[in-house]
Amino acid sequence: MNMLSPVTGFRGRTMDTCYYALIRKAQDGRFIAWVPDLPGVTAAGPSEDEVVREVSRSTRELLRVMLIKGLPHPATSPVDELPLGDHAGRYRRLLLILS
Asked: Is residue 55, in this structure, part of any structural domain at all?
């Protein structure tokens, strides 16, 4: 799935927005990703590419549903407010551009 493909909702409206995903490698070797500004948007898998695709898809789907229901999109946190990591190590940051 192309991360830059349009996200369409109710009556063909589109949305343009960006959110940061955080990615880390777990102790078991799997990758974990989540979007701090969108609770419940997470992904886990054997490769970083797989979790990037899945977290992008999940983000796009949640925002599409919010658009259809007429709900506002949560504000995006500034990058300097995102955590750098935890006791297990540093996080990678990925800017998801959804248009």
From this structure: yes
3-class secondary structure, 31: strand
Amino acid at 9: G
Place of tokens 């248009």: 99
pLDDT beyond 70 at 2: no
List C-alpha distances in Å: 80 to 7, 17, 31, 65, 87: 27, 18, 23, 28, 19
Task: Indicate which CATH number applies to the domain containing 39.
Answer: 3.30.160.250
Residues 50-70 pLDDT 10s: 999 999 999 999 999 999 999
Q: Which residue in this structure is represented by tokens 């799997």?
A: 30
E-strand stretches of the chain: 17-25, 31-34, 42-45, 85-86, 89-90, 92-98
- Token pair 């990058």 is found at 79
